[in-house]
Structure formats: C-alpha cells, structure tokens
Amino acid sequence: MQIYAIDVSKEYLDIFSKSDDEKILQKRIKNSFKSIGKLLSELKDGDFICPEFTAVYTNLLLRLAHLYNVKIALASGFDIKHSLGNRKGKSDQLDAERIWEYALRFKDRLAFNIPDDENMQELKMLFNLRKQLVKALKAMTSAYSMSKINPYSSIAENHIRTQTESFVRLQINKTEHQLFKIIEQSNQLDKNFNLVTSITGIGKVTALELIISTGNFIRINSARKAAAYAGVCPYPNQSGNVAKKSRIHFRANKKLKSLLHMCAKTICIHNKEFKLYRERKMLEGKHFYLVTNNVANKLLRMVYAVIASQKPFDISLITRDQRIENM
Known about the structure:
The protein is an alpha/beta fold. The chain has helices at residues 33-41, 59-67, 77-83, 92-105, 118-147, 155-185, 187-197, 204-214, 223-230, 254-270, 272-283, 288-309, 322-325; strands spanning 3-8, 12-18, 24-30, 48-51, 71-72, 235-239, 242-247. A 5-stranded mixed beta sheet has the order 3-2-1-4-5. Helix 5 (118-147) runs antiparallel to helix 6 (155-185). The longest helix has 31 residues, at 155-185.
C-alpha cells in the first residue's frame, strides 16, 4: 500500500509519495479530467490518495477517484496544520509533503470519502443559492428600514428598489420550488424529510439544512456527532484550578445552530413538556441561552430517533424510563 498526498489548487495538483524503499515521487499535474485520469489509472491495488480538502477544487478529483475505484481520504487543512507542529516555509510542494506525513501518521484514523449523488449535489447548489438570495434581500430591506428616517426620498429609488425586492422574492420562491421538487423525486430524501418535519417546531428550511449538512443522516450518523457539528454541545474549558465557561468549537456550523435555536424556541411554545422543562431550568437559575441550547440538543436526538425508527414523531408517545424498569 502506498499513500499519494495531493495539494489541490485551482490549476494544479502537487503530488508527493514515498515508497517503502524510500524512493520519492514528487510531481505536478493539471487539475483536469485527462491528467487526473492518467494518474489514477497508474495506481496499484491498495494504494490510496489523500488530498487536502479545498472545496470545489477537490470535486473533480473526488468524482474521478470514485469512478476509478481508488480510495480517497479528504484531509482538513486545519487538522494537517495543527498535527505536525511548527513548520517553517510554505509552498505547494512542501504542503504536499506535509499532507503525506499527516496521512502516514494518522492512516488508521482517515475516513474514506465517496462523492454525493446527483440529487444531493443539486440540493447543495440550490440551497446555497437560496442562502445568497435571502442574504441579498435582507441587506436591501435593512438598508430601506434605515433610510426611512431620512427626510429626503427618491421616487425613482423607491420604484427600482421595490421591483428588485419583488424579483428577489420571486427567485427565492422558484429556488424553494426546485428544492422541494428534488426532495419529492427521491424516495429516501422525501421519506427522511417528512420524518424530520413531523417533529413539532422543525420547519422545512431546517429539515433541508439537516439533510444537506449530514449527508441525509449518513455522513453524520448520530445525534452526538450532529450536536458537536452544529455547536449545541459545548466543550469544557479548564486547566488545573482554572475553570472557564464551556464554549462551542469555532468550526461549528453556526447557521445550523441558529436554525435549531429558533426551532427550540418554537417547540417550547407548542409542546407542554418542553415548556415545563424550560421553565424549570430557568427557575433553577440557568441562563436562557443555555436552556435553549439544551432544548436544541434534545431536538437533534428526536430527529435521529425518528430517522432510526423510520416512524413519524408522535407527541402522545411516552418513553419508558429504563432506570425504573431495571430496578
């Protein structure tokens, strides 16, 4: 087995590998279909590649590796940087060598990746487009609310702005229509989407974000992992006698956390048990956002419970207390 580390950029792939007899392979190829296909066809059985994940620049390599039946483990640049200590100097060739050192050291922990199917890829692209449109609309409406206090106004400006806002809203609706159309066309996506939205408080946008972020609950396959990914699972921050406030990791998905917090506030209004839970914790002196975080964590556990059981959420269902049954 030989490891091929790849530093990926928009134009080129810098490759580094070292065989058992210390023979070094180091070369640069174009980030193109023909060059990558030639590289992958030359690999032997058991060899795998470890490129640094660079978003869209890695997509072609990931897709072709799957077609050529070559194992590929995408590595995070953050993990590579913080696992090899303080290294001086930087170039594409040096980065490829450091990726190889990382892959060799942690090869027992590497997770091999497979590309998303066409439905998931289109979902991601359309959902990102919706985010951009919503952000643009929010910027326009916020600017208009601030301009209301201006004693001067322009009829032309108001006319153009109104037309533009209407057009952006129309495009958001069209994007959402296409998103739900893709969901309906896939049996597994449609089933999981309906299961998640059956939970009181979780809307369609949050369900889409959960499906896309977790790879339809396959890539992130447990509530515990999802809580860490979404940032609703704070980690302890203490050393010796110094204990500081627990904090979430800075790499958490803050957009998903924001959506889950909104869902948590909604379920605390419409669900009696969650409402009593929040009131009880608030009376105990817990901070409002800490309680909201706990409710969001519980919501994720409910999501993964309905996905595992493949049964819609039933508000009348009472879970038996295992502690009492085991007595």
